[in-house]
């Protein structure tokens, strides 16, 4: 397999820079609109100052608001240590050994095994399905949680969170089994949004993330077994949305509740990623 980096951590600088520039279109648009309006009402130089200030404010506020917005989308609940001791124990151990900041741990009540991660390295959020915590053994779960830390440390989870809000837009709150805004509005420019999302996140992302995880655990069979088990049990999450599918470890999109062609097309655009069986096969080769 030909890849441009050895693991996802090799993309840390690239992801950090991409995160900074992702907000530029929104900041420029705000600056122009505000500047023109204020300039027409007052004078050109006041409009210029107002435009610059509004653009700077947007550039500062939007990145910080991404995680807060996603928290309402996922609707996960806290994962208290007395209820999920293994979850906390493994993540704490991995965080200490890798020098990472311990993320906030949450759960979603879903029988199928999957895991989502978003946010900056020092304020990351990891969401495991209850099925993941129940179905995987300790070594398998360690491999999956290591992958979550890799996405956080490489700024991939931060970039993905901002891309969800700034690129996916209305697709963030709608999914195959999750109604929300009108489908005509959600589907507008969906192809363009999907293409830009792929360019922002980069190629081979899932494979690089897997390789980063085994660099941390030093045990490829653990993650390989976890991926095989996830493939066998299915990774669909009923509450998953098209605009947040890329934040999950494996494709979380399930079939639409009806035969809506638009819904199937959106799932094809935003779901998938690297086939989980290929990812498991790579672990078997290492």
| β-strand number | 4
Strand order in space, largest sheet: 1-2-4-3
Beta-strand content bin: 5-15%
Helix content: 55-70%
Straight-line distance between termini: 12 Å
Number of domains: 1
- The averaged pLDDT comes out at 92
Structural class: mainly alpha
SSE ordering: HHHEHEEEHHHHHHHHH
The major beta sheet can be summarized as: 4 strands, mixed
Tell me the number of helical segments per DSSP (H or I, 4 or more residues long). 13
Radius of gyration: 20 Å
Shape: globular
Low-confidence stretches: none
Topology record:
Elements lengths: L11 H11 L1 H18 L2 H31 L2 E2 L6 H14 L5 E5 L6 E4 L6 E5 H6 L2 H16 L2 H13 L14 H5 L2 H12 L3 H13 L2 H14 L27 H10 L5 H10 L1
Parallel strand pairs: 2-4
Antiparallel strand pairs: 1-2, 3-4
Any overview of this molecule?
The chain is mainly alpha-helical and 286 residues long. It has one domain (8-285). The chain contains 13 helices and four strands. The chain has helices at residues 12-22, 24-41, 44-74, 85-98, 130-135, 138-153, 156-168, 183-187, 190-201, 205-217, 220-233, 261-270, 276-285, and strands spanning 77-78, 104-108, 115-118, 125-129. The chain has a four-stranded mixed sheet with strand order 1-2-4-3, with helices on both faces. A hairpin with a 6-residue loop joins strand 3 and strand 4. The model has no long low-confidence stretch (mean pLDDT 92).
Task: Summarize this structure as a short list of keywords or feature phrases.
single chain, about 290 residues, mainly alpha, 4-stranded mixed sheet, 13 helices, 4 strands, about 60% helix, globular
